[in-house]
Specification:
By secondary structure, the protein is an alpha/beta fold. The protein has two domains: 111 residues, Tetrapyrrole methylase, N-terminal domain (Cobalt-precorrin-4 Transmethylase, domain 1, 3-Layer(aba) Sandwich), CATH 3.40.1010; 131 residues, Methyltransferase, Cobalt-precorrin-4 Transmethylase, Domain 2, CATH 3.30.950.10. 32% of the residues lie in helices and 21% in strands. It has a five-stranded parallel sheet, with helices on both faces. The chain has a five-stranded mixed sheet with strand order 6-9-12-10-11, with helices on both faces. A two-stranded antiparallel sheet has the order 7-8. Helix 3 packs across helix 4. The radius of gyration is 20 Å and the shape is elongated. Pfam families: TP_methylase. Keywords: Methyltransferase, Porphyrin biosynthesis, S-adenosyl-L-methionine, Transferase. It is an enzyme of class 2 (transferase).
Length: 258
């Protein structure tokens, strides 16, 4: 007797980096993942042009998180990933920038792994790389800094603590993600540990996008200048870097063309 019962094949999950927002900075591998996807679970900060490309072949589901605001619970995102994949779908889990940097990637991989679902990571251009290109600098420079720190402004417990004593040393460079709300906290910790108040601070809002803005300030003036700038888009904060004048001019020129 023939058995007509069939087991539905398991799907697959691609953890894809959406880059900083400019669709031209997507990798070819990310585009290929979009083309074969059935559903895309995406973060809140993914730019509309990138989502428009993804939507050409897949259904979009917003599972965004907001710092200090209403958000999807991580467990619910994990469960949705597993549900779609177990239903036989090719799933793209689309994360802003690069999924391996402050992207809560490990929790989602562990959930998919536990369900026996195949997966791969497709890296993207992280905000620090796009932002430092936008200010015409490099993250490391011979004679200035042989290392650079990638920091988060806040974690699950609130404002994140770091090795402030090391950061306060002359020549230190750090790229601070999600640092706007924690700007005054960061300023206070650094000054308390002896950082020079004139240390350059640069914020890049909407890096790589047509509405990119650059705010050049100092550690001493950081909270004041940030409040006056009224930045409401995603921003990357550089500690120890100032924009080159030529890069600032290019940003202003691009805004005139937009």
């Amino acid at each position: 007797m023939q058995d007509f019962h069939t087991t539905k094949p398991k799907g697959h999950v691609d953890f894809v980096g959406a880059g900083p927002g400019d669709p031209e900075l997507l990798t070819l591998k990310a585009l290929a993942a979009f083309e074969r996807a059935d559903v895309v679970l995406h973060d809140r900060l993914i730019s509309k042009p990138v989502l428009d490309i993804a939507a050409q072949s897949a259904a979009l589901v917003d599972v965004g998180k907001a710092g200090f605001g209403p958000s999807w619970k991580q467990g619910d995102i994990d469960a949705l990933l597993v549900e779609h994949a177990l239903n036989g779908n090719r799933v793209v889990r689309l994360k802003s920038g690069d999924p391996t940097i402050f992207g809560r990637l490990d929790e989602e991989i562990e959930a998919v792994d536990a369900a026996g679902i195949s997966w791969q990571i497709i890296p993207g251009i992280t905000a620090a790389s796009a932002s430092v290109a936008g200010i015409g600098q490099s993250l490391t420079r011979r004679g200035r800094n042989s290392s650079v720190r990638f920091l988060t402004g806040h974690d699950m417990q609130g404002f994140a603590d770091h090795d402030w004593n090391a950061l306060a040393q002359a020549g230190s460079v750090a790229a601070i993600y999600m640092g706007k709300k924690s700007a005054r906290f960061i300023q206070g910790r650094l000054i308390m540990h002896g950082a020079d108040r004139t240390t350059p601070i640069t914020l890049v809002e909407n890096a790589s996008r047509p509405d990119q803005r650059i705010l050049a300030t100092t550690l001493d003036q950081l909270p004041t200048d940030l409040a006056a700038a009224e930045m409401d888009g995603p921003a990357l904060t550089f500690y120890g870097l100032a924009p080159r004048e030529a890069a600032q001019a290019v940003t202003e020129f691009n805004k005139e063309l937009a």
